Task: structure prediction
Amino acid sequence: DMSETSVEAKAAALEEIEKEVLACERCPLHKGRTQGVFGEGNPDADLVFVGEAPGQEEDRQGRPFVGRAGQLLDKLIHAMGLKREDVYITNILKSRPPNNRSPAADEVEACWDYLVRQLQIIAPKVIVTLGNPATQTLLDTRTGITRLRGQWQKLPLLGEGLAGIDVMPTYHPAYLLRQYTTENRRKVWEDLQKVMDALGLEPPGES
Result:
């Protein structure tokens, strides 16, 4: 069956890049990390979530979004009627910056090719960018998340086959945890409902 073969081929291609990431010394961040955090999920996912960088818990476990923000992301994914295994989750940076500061330009540049190749292999229908660094980097814009969130964007030509993928910017779950207002939660949920509509997803409990 062709479709299964292609999923296996995608998984194998991603594993090859993951080996590179785990051995990567392209920028000084490798000196301070416990391990690289490549990304995880369905190699053939329609939906990819991109954050900015691993935090302390991610660095410890080698998995993206496993701390408090990750638990909130899991809840949001479930609310969409999906499981973590259905989507793909990664970050712009594959190593944790000191004290969880925002990614520096040279670090993004060093890591960039990994993300481009991940996206080329997975070839998702929709990318959700979480927070300012991920949104501004992927969309190559200086416009802030407050203005961009909830508005469909198109991915620029970051690499062959990537131009025109639908991008939905929304707040990072870590920001939601800090500003856990009804208003902010509603905004993120509205953004994700647009994604559900685009992918033809039914919320759980409705059919």
